Amino acid sequence: MLNKKILNNVLEICLSTGGEFAEIFVENKEVQNVSLISGVVEGTLGGINEGVGIRVFDKGTVLYGYTNDLTPNNLLKVASEIALAVKEKTGSKIILPFIDKEIENKHIIKKVPNTGHKKLAVEFLKNAHSESIKFSNLITETKGSYLSWVQNVLIVNSEGLYVEDKRVNTRVVINSVATKNSDKQMGYEAPGSMEGFEFIERLDGGKLGRDTADVATRMVNADFCPSGKMDVIIDNGFGGVIFHEACGHSLEATGVAKGASVFTGKLGEKIASSKVTAIDDGTLANKWGSINVDDEGKMAQRNVLIENGILKSYLVDKFNGQSMKMESTGSGRRESYKYAPTSRMTNTFIDNGTDKIEEVIKDTKDGLYAKKLGGGSVQPATGEFNFAVLEGYIVKNGKIQYPVKGATLIGKGQEVLLNIDKVCDNLLLAEGMCGSVSGSIPTTVGQPTIRVKDLTVGGR
Fold this sequence. Notes:
21% of the residues lie in helices and 42% in strands. By secondary structure, the protein is of the alpha+beta class. It is globular, with a radius of gyration of 24 Å.
């Protein structure tokens, strides 16, 4: 991407006024995107994004600049401007010689996405639309999209790090909308993988269309959910988004280092039910949120966050790790060269327990079965959250009785963790996009089916 002499010169200028650490992130990313509305192609986009982000640590602060002009003179100019922003000019720091870092690629790619795959993607999405429309005359709209990218990165720093990586991700999103009178309800599936087009070839587009239409139709015909405190069974897979949002973000050093997290200073303390073990693992082969190295050049690793209810680790990036006196956990991530990295999740999930879903339902006298969660929001400093339930069912006397719509789960992450009294043995992962201060990145959520006692459910 850039030769080592230029990279070394940029680092030298970055630290010429006394900065403590300098880093260069070089990115070349080719993106393919196809979208359909009700079976009609709305747009096809493709292009290459290329640029460089330059970061300097200066006595507890971060200085960052970026550019899409990769000419040597411009890179030196950006580095000079960053260096001038260093508060206390104390002279140059030593730049260590580059040492090429070999990485093990655990993510085998068979068919690297290219423009030729767009036609096949359109056929896939049209099949999903066709099967959705045929499922019910209540289906009034479908949306489908295909997204893939090939991202090549180079990361170097003043400590001698020199590492290159290639990331390939592919995903489809299928959405069916059912309408009855003035009410609209949605069914949604969005599988993704750190693979090439071979991932799409393994999927059944027609089934995705039928499944999303089934959920939308069930929910548009459902009664509205009652409100109040009740036991809530949250299904496996994307149900894990509640841990990701309500608890995972509060374990990121971005907030912990500033004291802006409910879990600051609680390492070694019991913060969850003893049934809960939670993990963030960026090493899982070909999973959507996986990485070979993070965006600071640190190898991906498996981090046990909570073990049998005890807080064992935070998710730590290099900068925040300095103030916390902790090593990076391979969690420094960013959307692109336009963002400085910070601590982020990869594949984050509650691990398997020993309970059986049939027994959990049978043991629930009066509650809600949240089979599919939708969007939500969280305040990491307080742990307060709310999530929409896309597909829900009332449970009475140990049996699933009937579907309900309009349910919302409301609570605090730290309370939910302690109130989990059942963890099943059916772990499943699901894919999503996570937004934070360093942009939007692919992350995986997951869990087995769990039960939360006395959770507040908002209804109509």
